[in-house]
Amino acid sequence: MHGPLNPRTEISRKLLHVSSSLLAVAYLLLPREFMLPTLGAGVVFSVAIELLRYHNPAFGRLFRRCVGGMVRESEWSRITGATYVWIGAFLTVWLFPRTDAIAGLFTLSLADSAAALVGQRFGRHRFLAKSLEGSVAFLLTAVAVIWLVRGGPPTVAVSVALVVAIVEALPTLKLGRYELSDNILIPVCTAAALGVLSASPAFA
User: Fold this and answer.
1) Which end of the chain has fewer CB atoms within 10 angstroms, the N or the C?
2) pTM of the full structure
3) CA-to-CA distance for 184 and 86, rounded, in angstroms?
4) How does pLDDT run across 103-158, given as a tens digit for each residue?
5) pLDDT digits over 14-25, tens only?
6) Cβ pair 165, 190 in contact under 8 A
7) Which of 161, 134, 6 is nearest to 72 (CA)?
8) How far is CA 165 from CA 65, 141, 159, 160, 203, in A?
């Protein structure tokens, strides 16, 4: 029986989440024609791992021994967050312009991690389904990330970060083993909001 992650393990998990910034860094250096098939392969590999751990008892035991300490209780009966990272990254690179996609990937890895770590350590006040303190950490980190990557009027970065911070704080929609994960919503919503607000005359 796997209980909730202890704080030290949660920190380790979020540091691993930060390492997903490597996907954004890779997209800074490599063309879309390389990134799309690479991310697609990551999705296929992750889904294969999920299927094996559900349907092959021997592999399921091996999975628990190798990474059990990094898996939340809820993920033993659902898809893991790592798989959703690959799916979110693939969709973001596929659907949106390069700079907007890079901003979305950095927002996922850095702002989401900041929100989790601050919320766990200092969260005292409720904001939607998350803590106010964590949401503020997400907002401030996202503003910095989006403005540094995308440039343009600071009002765009602030507005996009505010929209995505609210999305991140909403309750997660779950359906059986599947969910509309933050790891998909954050990069996709960031890139989409950047496209919409950057084209708006109000932010020119």
Assistant:
1) N
2) 0.88
3) 9
4) 999 999 999 989 988 988 898 999 998 999 999 999 999 999 999 999 888 999 99
5) 666 677 899 999
6) no
7) 6
8) 35, 10, 10, 8, 19
